[in-house]
Amino acid sequence: MIEKSAPLFVHSFELCTWLLEHFDAAPGALPRRLCEGSLDLIEALSLALRGLDRGLNIDRADQLLFTLRIHLRMAAALDLLDDEQLLFALGCCDDLGRQLGGWRRALGPI
Questions:
Q1: CATH number of 2-107
Q2: How far apart are CA 60 and CA 48, in angstroms?
Q3: Angstrom distance (rounded) from CA 59 to CA 10
Q4: How far apart are CA 7 and CA 49, in angstroms?
Q5: Does residue 2 carry a pLDDT above 60?
Q6: Residue 20: is it exposed, middle or buried by C-beta count within 10 angstroms (0-12/13-18/19+)?
Q7: What are the domain boundaries of the chain?
């Protein structure tokens, strides 16, 4: 089972759940992008973990994580997140980034 063998999946699932709980019912483009971005991130990671276009999906997850960070900062600038929430979400993103980078290095050149 993916959840037991891949902390990357577990942590991305937790971040996605947290973002959906906070923004799924919120109106506006940015809350929608945050939710869609987090769902796209977990999709890319899940496909990579299954071995489906692994290199492509790892790169896609990295790009999605980068844009998610930007959207989170924008949400804080627009007072959709307070400082504590922003620090939590960015901390999750940093953790995912470290895990994703380690996975990418372990695979070698893609």
A1: 1.20.1440.60
A2: 10
A3: 19
A4: 11
A5: no
A6: middle
A7: 2-107
d(CA 99, CA 24): 26
* Helix 7-23 × helix 83-107 angle, to 10°: 150
Read off the amino acid at residue 38: S
- In this structure, the number of other CB atoms found within 10 A of the CB of residue 34 comes to 26
- d(Cα 34, Cα 23) in Å, to the nearest integer? 7
pLDDT digits (tens, 9 = 90+) for 70-95: 999 999 999 999 999 999 999 999 99
CB 47 within 8 A of CB 58: no
Give the separation between CA 67 and CA 34, rounded to whole angstroms: 9
- Name the maximum alpha-carbon separation found in the chain: 42
List, for residues 50-61, the tens digit of each pLDDT value. 999 999 999 999
Query: What backbone torsions phi and psi does residue 81 show, to the nearest 5 degrees?
Result: -130, 140
Give me the residue label for tokens 């942590």. 11
Contact 28, 3 (CB under 8 A): no
